[in-house]
Amino acid sequence: MLSFEVEGNLEKAIRLCGSTKLIVKATSLGSTESLIEASGAMKPSHPAGLVRLSVGIEDVDDIICDLKKAFEAAYAN
C-alpha cells in the first residue's frame, strides 16, 4: 500500500485512476489484485491530488507498464 500526490489537481488524479487497465479502480483496498483510488475525491480532508495504490500479486513489469501509460494519459494535453 502506498499513497502519492499527483502534481496538478483532482482532475488529473481521477484521470490517472481511470486510465489504468490492469489496476482496478476501487475504493476498497484489500485484495490480491492491484487497486487504485483518487482518495482526494472521496475525502475532502485529503489533498486533492492524493492517490492510494494497493499493489497486488500481478507481475511487477505489468503493473509498472500500466502505471506509466496511466500517467501519460493523465498528463496528456
Shape: globular
Mean pLDDT across every amino acid position: 92
Beta-strand content: 15-25%
Radius of gyration of CA atoms, rounded to a whole number: 12 Å
Beta-strand segment tally: 4
Quickly give the structural class. Answer: alpha+beta
For the termini, the CA-CA separation is 29 Å
Outline the biggest β-sheet.
4 strands, mixed
What's the helix count? 3
H-E string = EHEEHEH
Helical proportion, percent range: 25-40%
- Give the uncertain stretches in residue-range form: none
Strand order of the largest sheet: 1-4-3-2
Structure report:
The protein is an alpha+beta fold and about 80 residues long. The protein is about 40% helix and about 20% strand. It is built from 3 helices and 4 strands, in the order βαββαβα. Strands 1-4-3-2 form a 4-stranded mixed sheet. Helix 1 packs across helix 3.
Task: Summarize the topology.
Layout (H helix, E strand, L loop, with lengths): L1 E4 L4 H10 L4 E2 L9 E4 H4 L7 E5 L5 H15 L3
Parallel strand pairs: 2-3
Antiparallel strand pairs: 1-4, 3-4
Give structural attributes.
77 residues, alpha+beta, four-stranded mixed sheet, 3 helices, 4 strands
